[in-house]
Amino acid sequence: MSLDLIILDCDGVLVDSERITTVLLAEIVSELGWAVSREDSIALFKGKDMKIIRAMVEERLGRSVGDGFVPGYRRRMAERFATRGVPAIAGAGDLLDWLDARGIAHAVASNGPHEKMKQTLGRLRCNGDMHDWYARFEGRCHSAYDINCWKPDPGLFLHAAEAMQARPERCVVIEDSCSGVAAAAAAGMRSIGYADLTSAAELRAAGATVVADSMHEVQRVLEVWSDERGG
Hints:
The chain has 231 residues and is α/β, with parallel strands linked by helices. It has helices spanning 18-32, 38-45, 50-61, 69-84, 92-102, 114-120, 133-136, 144-147, 155-163, 178-186, 200-206, 215-228, and strands spanning 5-8, 86-87, 106-110, 124-126, 129-131, 141-143, 171-175, 190-194, 210-212.
């Protein structure tokens, strides 16, 4: 048996955007009247769909934040990405090159919309150069908005596996959020939890098969799993 498919989350696994977006969310929510620090923002909002985040904010404030909350956040996010650029996660480029060299199929599955992936993957800073990883994954970028199904529901990962003609039990998910590793477990897929902004203990508790603290360690795990299965 070989590894049929590696499914990679986008934010926090390929692109180091979470540090930008969690700070922005803390700013916006604090402006509305709920004082949220960067650390609080990571703990509360990281890996969650914006609909859920809006509901959380409204429940805390006891009022509606209006239909402009999500579009306003996305507008400010796009402006911040455009002015500051989005760095790649250290080692992510090497991991993708290794997957290509081994002929191991891989795809992206994100809770974010395609427009956001175009803004991050499409204008990525890696090793001092600009890259378009959205084009690199042409036809293999899957958004929860495609099927109206967000992590921790397993539907997005199952959708990606079906699109790539892969069996769930032969897929591996690389995730940095608790909702992502929980979705992988629910889909019957193994997962590698990338412990960066989310702790290794939290990822294990959410169901991660293995936890790694660098993309090079992620690659080493995949090397062992692919060799064990003749990949």
